[in-house]
Amino acid sequence: MDKESTKRLTIKIARILDNKKADDVKIYDLLGLSSLCDYVIIATAASAPHLDALEREASVELKKENIYKTNRDGGNGGVWRVSDYGGFMLHIMTYSAREF
Questions:
Q1: Chain centroid to CA 79
Q2: Domain holding 26: CATH number?
Q3: Which residue, 16, 31, 45, 83, could crosslink 50 as a Cys pair with Cβ 3.0–4.6 Å?
């Protein structure tokens, strides 16, 4: 995925999360600063079911673009999840996890 496509998808996913009532959605531009990814999206979910729904929605939308997770962590716990999509990483967490 080229840099412009990565940026476009990062913004698209952030908007989708915002439309799905995620709170405090932020995009951090790490272009040229990190060897792991170019962008990081961080969003807060109101509950464990909300976290699951946000993660699922992002995954479904990215699959439509033939973009798949290369890795995922956070297990099945309802507190925090991180998904690695290569050019960007998606962190979704509950309020308590984000405060920590």
A1: 14
A2: 3.30.460.10
A3: 45
Q: Answer for the pair 35, 84: CB distance below 8 angstroms, yes or no.
A: no
Tokens of 54: 């946000």
DSSP 8-state assignment for residue 48? H
Provide the angle, in degrees to the nearest 10, between the axes of the packed helices 3-19 and 48-64: 140
pTM for this model (two decimals): 0.90
Which SS3 state, helix, strand or coil, does residue 89 take?
A: strand
Eight-class DSSP state of 67: -
Joined together, the tokens standing for residue 37 give 């990814």
pLDDT in tens, 4-24: 899 999 999 999 999 999 999
Domain limits at 37?
3-99
Asked if 98 contacts 44 with a C-beta cutoff of 8 angstroms, the reply is yes
